[in-house]
């Protein structure tokens, strides 16, 4: 198990990025790069992460970053891996695609699915701030029901795509969920992914102060609430084996979970959520945990 002292002091992001104060995407990226180390090539589609890197002529990171059009992140990663293979360099270099939820669950899904189906040896990490934030908070397939966005002013109807499950259905060797508020767990998952050959997928919930409507100082607390209410279970699926992560284990017991209302009340985006939608969420959370319990019994 990773301890704080195990996290390298070396930083791979220079101070003073263009991300907002309290941005958990920036924290996720910082921790991920510490786990991945200097021999890493990143590819990124249009997103807040593109903005974090800076304007042309500048780069906030010490590692190489290849910006690619929105729909092509998986294909770009496949191309980088093929080029490294050709030069006999692929064994020593981690190729990592880092995309927002819009760039993963909506616009990037076909090239991600293709790259995975080709068996590309890479990590795809989705930081999920649950909307198209960079262009002004439009809803995505990952926006949860009941949440405000500028294209769902009365709250989104429908559902949040379960992208981790979609990737698991591709039969890949590693799938994990994570969140910025549990950085040791996040670090360990990137380290584990780095050691596995083949396609790896991490889905990371990324609280966003302006998009979710809360004060920047509360980013860690809001993320913890997502886990403590059972809304965001932390787990890994390694070669098909389901492992519930340490920070989520006590929430198998439903009585230990905080009421989901605490999570919704902490963010202005849920101010119009209906009672019916809250009940739907409760049912969904219970069903998800029943499913987790069954999967643990099968082992
Ligand atoms: C093909 C294309 N369509 C639209 C855009 C405009 N655009 C740039 S970033 C962005 C939002 C990205 O959302 P997401 O992937 O969730 O990342 P986030 O901004 O939330 O970090 C959009 C729509 C674009 N750059 N290219
Ligand atoms: S809008 Fe949200 S995700 Fe984008 S930089 Fe600001 S805090 Fe980060
Ligand atoms: Mg987003």
Residue stretches low in confidence (pLDDT < 50, at least 5 long) are: none
Q: Measure the end-to-end span.
A: 21 Å
Q: What's the average pLDDT?
A: 97
| Beta strands, count | 8
> Per CATH, which architecture?
3-Layer(aba) Sandwich
The coarse overall form would be: globular
Largest β sheet strand count, sense and barrel closure: 8 strands, mixed
How many structural units, i.e. domains?
1
Q: Give the CATH H-level superfamily.
A: Thiamin diphosphate (ThDP)-binding fold, Pyr/PP domains
- Bound molecule kinds, no repeats: thiamine diphosphate, iron/sulfur cluster, magnesium ion
Q: Could you name the CATH topology?
A: Rossmann fold
β-strand amount: 5-15%
Q: What is the N-to-C order of secondary-structure elements (H for helix, E for strand)?
A: HEHEHEHHEHEHEHHEEHH
How are strands sequenced across the largest beta sheet? 2-1-3-4-6-5-7-8
Specify the oligomeric state: single chain
The share of residues in helices is 25-40%
CATH top level assignment: Alpha Beta
Q: Please count the helical segments.
A: 11
Class computed from helices, strands and strand pairing:
alpha/beta
CA radius of gyration = 18 Å
Account of the 3D structure:
By secondary structure, the chain is an alpha/beta fold. It has one domain (10-298): Rossmann fold (3-Layer(aba) Sandwich), CATH 3.40.50. 36% of the residues lie in helices and 14% in strands. It is built from 11 helices and 8 strands. It has helices at residues 24-36, 48-53, 73-86, 102-106, 109-117, 163-168, 183-194, 209-212, 219-228, 260-265, 275-298, and strands at residues 40-44, 64-67, 94-100, 123-128, 174-179, 200-205, 235-238, 241-244. β5, α7 and β6 (200-205) form a beta-alpha-beta unit. It is globular, with a radius of gyration of 18 Å. Bound molecules: thiamine diphosphate, iron/sulfur cluster and magnesium ion. The site of iron/sulfur cluster (SF4) has 11 residues, from α8.
């Amino acid at each position: 198990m990773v301890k704080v002292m195990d996290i390298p002091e070396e930083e791979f992001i220079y101070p003073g990025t263009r991300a907002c104060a309290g941005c958990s995407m920036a924290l996720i990226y910082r921790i991920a790069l510490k786990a991945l180390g200097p021999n890493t090539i990143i590819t990124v589609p249009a997103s807040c992460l593109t903005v974090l890197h800076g304007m042309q002529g500048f780069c906030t990171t010490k590692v190489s970053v290849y910006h690619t059009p929105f729909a092509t992140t998986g294909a770009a990663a496949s191309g980088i891996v093929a080029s490294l293979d050709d030069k006999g360099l692929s064994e020593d270099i981690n190729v990592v695609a880092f995309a927002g939820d819009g760039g993963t669950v909506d616009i990037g899904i076909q090239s991600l699915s293709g790259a995975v189906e080709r068996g590309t040896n890479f990590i795809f990490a989705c930081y999920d701030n649950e909307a198209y934030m960079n262009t002004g908070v439009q809803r995505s397939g990952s926006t949860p029901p009941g949440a405000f966005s500028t294209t769902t002013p009365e709250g989104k109807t429908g559902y949040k795509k379960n992208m981790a499950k979609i990737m698991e259905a591709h039969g890949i060797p590693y799938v994990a969920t994570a969140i910025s508020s549990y950085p040791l767990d996040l670090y360990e998952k990137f380290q584990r992914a780095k050691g596995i050959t083949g396609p790896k997928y991490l889905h990371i919930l990324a609280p966003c102060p302006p998009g979710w409507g809360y004060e920047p100082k509360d980013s860690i607390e809001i993320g913890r609430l997502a886990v403590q209410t059972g809304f965001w279970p932390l787990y890994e699926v390694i070669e098909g084996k389901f492992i519930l992560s340490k920070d989520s284990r006590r929430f198998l017991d439903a009585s230990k979970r905080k009421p989901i209302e605490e999570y919704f009340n902490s963010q202005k985006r849920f101010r119009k959520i209906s009672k019916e939608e809250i009940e739907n969420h409760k049912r969904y959370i219970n069903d998800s945990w029943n499913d987790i319990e069954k999967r643990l019994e099968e082992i």
